[in-house]
Amino acid sequence: MALRTGTGLIVAALVAGLGALILGEYEFEGMLPFVAGPLFGLVIGEIVVGVGRSRAVLVGVAAGVLAASGIAWAGWIDSSEGIEPVKRLVWVAAALAGAAALARVVGRAGPRGPAAGTGP
């Protein structure tokens, strides 16, 4: 189980890095941070859950950190790799990405037990 969870986190880290390289080519202005942040976090969270099959809080926190770090790296790339200041909306997008990844991993797993209204 730990090997599968570790593999999920490694794959998520690779995808977060690739996503940062791609997203870093865009300006963090307008609605982009408010759309890209949560979507980025959901993708990272989905990879962790899909590959790692773990919904532990610690794994969710790790996924949130990976998602937020990917957005922060994209913001650094957008700032001409540190030549210009990093835009404030980058940090908003990073927070949204981290929260979305955490919610995706730790969120409700679905109904446990018999469905409501069924049974004897």
Task: Give me the number of helical elements.
Answer: 4
Elements, N to C (H/E) = HHHH
Q: Give the overall shape.
A: elongated
Average pLDDT confidence is 92
Measure the end-to-end span: 36 Å
Structural class designation: mainly alpha
Taking Cα atoms only, what radius of gyration do you get, to the nearest Å?
A: 16 Å
Q: Can you tell me the number of structural domains?
A: 1
Helix content: over 70%
- In percent, how much strand structure appears in the residues? under 5%
How many individual β-strands?
0
- Taking pLDDT < 50 over at least 5 consecutive residues as the criterion, the unreliable ranges are none
Structure description:
This protein is an all-alpha fold and 120 residues long. The chain has one domain (2-106). 70% of the residues lie in helices and 0% in strands. The protein contains four helices and no strands. The chain has helices at 2-23, 32-52, 57-78, 88-106. The longest helix is centred in the first third of the chain and has 22 residues, at 2-23. The chain is elongated. It starts with a helix and ends in a 14-residue tail after the last helix. The model has no long low-confidence stretch (mean pLDDT 92).
SSE blueprint and pairings:
Elements: H1 2-23, H2 32-52, H3 57-78, H4 88-106
Helix pairs in contact: 1-2, 1-3, 2-3, 2-4, 3-4
